[in-house]
Specification:
four-stranded antiparallel β-sheet, about 45% helix, OmpR/PhoB-type_DNA-bd, 8 helices, Rossmann fold, alpha/beta, DNA-binding, Response regulator transcription factor
Length: about 220
């Protein structure tokens, strides 16, 4: 899953990035509203963490522009604790949820997981397909109840496919959601990761749809 963090406080931005990376996400960063708007308008994200008080363009304006342009990714807005009016404005502008500063990063991660689940139509933090179970809260995969050791890239690929179970996901879409904007992207690596997952899971849960991509169902 690929997340955009738009926060001008460099320390907080870095803190969020580290927490997201440790939780298994891919992260792009922006430090002002104009840069954030550009990235959100041109790159596909599974969710965005957006601060209200940004230089050059405030978070409310960024969000309003995204929504008016048809960008529907889940947005978690960061607000000041004593500014209830910011929370109302954020929700009215199209935010899906908000967290008041100061906050614990665990709360941000939990709310982010919930937003991504809801966007994909899942109510639970666990997704089960045949003998394979994905626990998005623990970033853990089990096969018939036994933990499966995966690399970060293998986990991200499997998590994306299982979150979008039943859908055909192209290699291009996987690349866009598994790597950040600066990564040297190569579609051949997707086939390598799929092959490794099939061996580790000892299962045909990942189906190749010839000429289109992959699907789990």
């Amino acid at each position: 899953m690929r997340i955009l963090v738009v926060e001008d406080d460099k320390d907080l931005n870095r803190q969020l990035e580290e927490s997201l990376l440790n939780a298994g996400y891919v992260v792009d960063k922006a430090f002002d509203g104009e840069e954030g708007h550009f990235l959100g308008d041109t790159e596909p994200y599974d969710a965005v963490i957006l601060d209200i008080g940004l230089p050059h363009m405030d978070g409310i304006s960024v969000l309003e522009k995204w929504r008016s342009e048809g960008r529907d990714m889940p947005v978690l807005m960061l607000t000041a604790r004593d500014r209830w009016s910011d929370k109302v404005a954020g929700i009215d502008a199209g935010a899906d949820d908000y967290v008041a500063k100061p906050f614990h990063t665990e709360e941000v991660l939990a709310r982010l997981r919930a937003l991504i689940r809801r966007a994909a139509g899942h109510a639970s933090s666990e997704i089960e397909i045949g003998p394979v179970r994905l626990d998005t809260r623990q970033s853990r995969v089990t096969m018939d109840g036994t933990a499966v050791k995966l690399t970060s890239h293998e986990y991200r690929l499997l998590a994306y496919l299982m979150t979008h179970k039943g859908e055909i996901v192209s290699r291009t879409e996987l690349i866009e959601h598994l790597y950040d904007q600066d990564f040297d992207r190569d579609s051949n690596t997707i086939e390598v990761f799929v092959g490794r997952l099939r061996k580790k899971l000892h299962s045909d849960v990942i189906e190749t749809v010839r000429g289109l991509g992959y699907r789990v169902a």
